[in-house]
Amino acid sequence: MADNFVLITGCSGGGKSSLLTELAARGYAAVEEPGRRIVRQARGPDDPVLPWNDPAAFARRAVEMALADREAARGLHGWVFFDRGVVDAASALEAATGEPSLRALDRAHRYHRRVFLAPPWPQLHTTDAERRHGFDAALEEHQRLEAALPALDYEVIVLPRTSVAGRADFVLAILEA
């Protein structure tokens, strides 16, 4: 386990990326969400790795990228914040294929015991070129993670619906407690 690796997960459009940007601005290491990077790296609209073309291929690529992110962050000291990670990718892979990968991947690649969960926040959720799914799909994803995290023995801390700076203060206070 990398005790300084902190997972920020939860509902799509729940403000995770904004929170990571704020934490990075405060000098902390922050790792961008694999899913958005996969979409940006796609070789055109028919690329099978895009989530709307092949959810299983997308999830497999997200697992690979999340594992590579962890490896790249091994030498970093202090808190390292991950916008999604292995748990999210493996959960999506299980949902897309039924392959039981979540528990095994998590066991080998744990995050800090406290995981921060962004709740559904309809006022923040928007679609864009990298996030085409609607709020209902985001809710399903959130419910899947909300069930998986405690089952994996993480202490789930729900992020408050407050300003980005307030959320960053909240996360840092919880981690320092």
TrEMBL record:
Listed SUPFAM superfamilies: P-loop containing nucleoside triphosphate hydrolases
* Database matches in InterPro entries: NadR/Ttd14_AAA_dom, P-loop_NTPase
From which domain of life does this come? Bacteria
Under the heading Gene3D superfamilies, the entry gives: P-loop containing nucleotide triphosphate hydrolases
Pfam families linked to this entry: AAA_28
* Limits of the NadR/Ttd14 AAA domain: 6-167
The protein's name: ATPase
